[in-house]
Amino acid sequence: MAIKEDIEKGNNTVHEEVNAPLLPEQKNMVHEEDAHSDSTSSKASLWMVYLSTFVAVCGSFEFGSCAGYSSPTQDAIREDLSLTLAEYSVFGSILTFGAMIGAITSGPIADFIGRKGALRTATGFCVAGWLAIYFAKGALPLDIGRLATGYGMGVFSYVVPVFIAEIAPKNLRGALTTINQLMICSGVSVAFIIGTVLTWRTLALTGLIPCAILLFGLFFIPESPRWLAKIGREKEFEAALQDLRGKDADISKEAADIRDYIETLERLPKAKMLDLFQRRYLRSVIIGVGLMVFQQFGGINGICFYVSNIFESAGFSATIGTIIYAIIQVVITALNTTVIDKAGRKPLLLVSSTGLVIACILSGISFYLKDHNLALNTVPILAVTGILIYIGSFSAGMGAVPWVVMSEIFPINIKGAAGSLATLVNWFGAWAVSYTFNFLMSWSSYGTFILYAAINALGILFVVTVVPETKGKTLEQIQAAINA
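User: That's the sequence. What structure does it adopt?
Assistant: Structure tokens below.
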């Protein structure tokens, strides 16, 4: 990629290290450090971690605001600007293309100008995009604005979970990173609800509110200590870590572990996209990209996009169904933040994927009965139950956990390239599923849901056999174990 990525002492002569663990001295660190780290975090004042997380997840809320904007505004925009359905479809779908571009560039930007710099960049694009939409008099400025907000979404989708994972103590990392998904869901739901009472231009202005809070908040929070250590800003690294752990906290052990890890990585060659497929990094790349594949190709965006049509075809009120859908999504994602560091990542993924399989089968049965005129009185019940179980199950694990795991497993020297790849795959999957959903439904409505059930069943197998448990471990321990 054109943007400079890693400021490292890359050395192409260290190929003999390829088969060595990244941190051989950390083999027994897990048990040695647990008591120290937990007692340290319990004594420390973590208000700066919470403040930093709040500021960062304003980007997640902005993400949700961008994603939820087009649903309640379709009729009003088409009427005011005399857009054809095809022109409005371009307006809706171009968001995903902007997000793909944002995903490709998010990792290098975050590596080059820092996590806070990347958040500012994403916010700038979103502000410009909302203003273009607000002042739009035709299709072209509308599309340019939508493309810009999409770019901001793509950068936010990578940088927010990575920033939170890099500042959080290990016993809070899962819960705090999951807030990312909760705020995305909240942003979508708020845009949908207030979009029913505000004009489409006013709704565009509300998208500036989280941007303003984020830009203001960034002046009061530290940069990621791990990024500062990586680029050699030693004094700032120690100051940022002390701010995050509290002024009375003993950060010597955590700081030493981060330094040791960074020093080991700096002896490795500078990572490029093709380097991700080296044996040393292959397992972490397979885990990160694989989870994104199963998250998207399990059907979430197709079902989300057409949920109103599904409820209507099942003879259920689309408005009531969509509101229930939004409430379930937010509530279960919120509950997820309280259990992810207790239950662990892997159990949540397994429970979630199992629920998705059951939900797809129920929905598939309902459409099969409808197509064959069998037990028609049970069709609405099965369809609504299937869709609500689907979103509940997705919110319980597959919605948030892949982003948490992605933020944890990549070594910092490949985090930019690998994170960009995983995020790009995610956005490509979002586009592919939403684009093909109507074609699949016209081919076979029940067959579509059975196909999604099969993909989610493969997801269960993938989680069982490939995905490790990362609960209660430092980022350095996780990455050393995966890439050993």
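Residues 295 and 398 are 6 Å apart (CA to CA).
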